[in-house]
Automatic annotation (TrEMBL):
PROSITE patterns: ATP_GRASP. It catalyses: 2 D-alanine + ATP = D-alanyl-D-alanine + ADP + phosphate + H(+). Its EC number is 6.3.2.4. It comes from the Bacteria. SUPFAM superfamilies: Glutathione synthetase ATP-binding domain-like, PreATP-grasp domain. GO terms for cellular component: cytoplasm. This is D-alanine--D-alanine ligase. Pathway: Cell wall biogenesis; peptidoglycan biosynthesis. The gene is ddl.
């Protein structure tokens, strides 16, 4: 048995991404058991904090996706409980989960992001939707991507090729949040680059190239086996491969992230990476990108999770 002690995987929660979170949690827990770690999995429910106080684990691996898991909520609870955990501190999670804020920080770090705008549901409803949307199209052109300003797994995200389809895309987006971020669609190769740090500093794992049918990497394509092709490492020229790896690490630093992250980007025809989103709690399901990338690097998921937990424990000890 591993000398880590008993560790806890938290998965589930009440966000729209609950099912994905449970799948991620089961997979990581199984992988940890395969490397002889004593692991328990629990849901994020009303009994969690009492459990943590009564029988604290040696460390926690939170695998909650969406709100609560990526907005700093669970991280704040674990910090209050004075428990070591894998992942970024609460303030970094909050600013990364808020796409308009993280977009600004990425641009300040010299990274390219698509031109865009943010509209609240209240503004859309009360200030004249037709005029607002017409102004958006005139300013940004078409096609556009509409996505919730806070959220993940492409829920509520639409690609709009015709102006008459923009109102319905906005309504769908508002079903998942109070604000929408509308950006120019960047054409190119869809890439994801995980970044991990088990104690020696953040470094990029092999990039993952995503080829989805019919061309949109939506929720169904992300989590349904066989619907998407992946190439690991991505089929990029060496200079471009180095550029996407550097962009992912730069984003990790710019947002003051810790332990693990994933940068989603488009590489255009000139080889320029455009940052689309940064994820502080990457999925760990059988179709998720980070486990594929780790496997291509020769790293088992159980080994990676164990090393991240070990690093969290050492970091916690150093602050005592």
């Amino acid at each position: 048995m591993s000398d880590l002690g008993r560790v806890l995987v938290i998965a589930g929660g009440l966000s729209h991404e609950r099912d994905v979170s449970l799948r991620s949690g089961r997979r990581v827990a199984e992988a940890l058991r395969e490397v002889d770690v004593d692991v328990e999995q629990r849901d994020a429910d009303a009994d969690l904090l009492a459990y943590l106080r009564h029988d604290p684990p040696a460390a926690v691996f939170p695998l909650l996706h969406g709100a609560q898991g990526e907005d700093g909520g669970i991280q704040e609870v674990l910090a209050l409980a004075e428990l070591p955990y894998v992942g970024s501190p609460p303030i970094s999670c909050r600013q990364t989960f808020d796409k308009p804020i993280s977009k600004g920080l990425l641009e300040q770090a010299g990274l390219r992001t698509p031109r865009g705008a943010v509209l609240s549901q209240a503004a859309f409803r009360e200030l004249g939707a037709a005029v607002l949307l017409d102004s958006l199209v005139k300013r940004l052109g078409l096609p556009l991507v509409v996505k919730p300003a806070r959220g993940g797994s492409a829920l509520g995200t639409s690609v709009v090729h015709k102006a008459e389809d923009l109102p319905s895309a906005m309504v769908e987006c508002f079903a998942y949040g109070e604000a929408a971020m509308i950006e120019q669609l960047i054409e190119g190769t869809e890439i994801a680059v995980p970044v991990v740090d088990t104690g020696a500093g953040p470094h990029a794992l092999p990039s993952v190239e995503i080829v989805a049918e019919p061309g949109t990497y939506d929720y169904h394509a992300r989590y349904t086996a066989g619907t998407t092709e992946y190439y690991v490492p991505a089929r990029l020229p060496d200079p471009t491969g180095r550029a996407v790896a550097q962009a992912a690490v730069t984003a990790h630093h710019a947002l003051r992230l810790r332990d693990i992250s994933r940068a989603d980007m488009i590489v255009d025809a000139d080889g320029t990476p455009w940052l689309l989103d940064i994820n502080v709690a990457p999925g760990m399901t059988e179709t998720s990108l980070l486990p594929q990338s780790a496997r291509a690097a020769g790293i088992g998921l159980g080994d990676l999770a164990r090393d991240l937990l070990s690093a969290a424990i050492e970091r916690h000890r150093a602050t005592q």
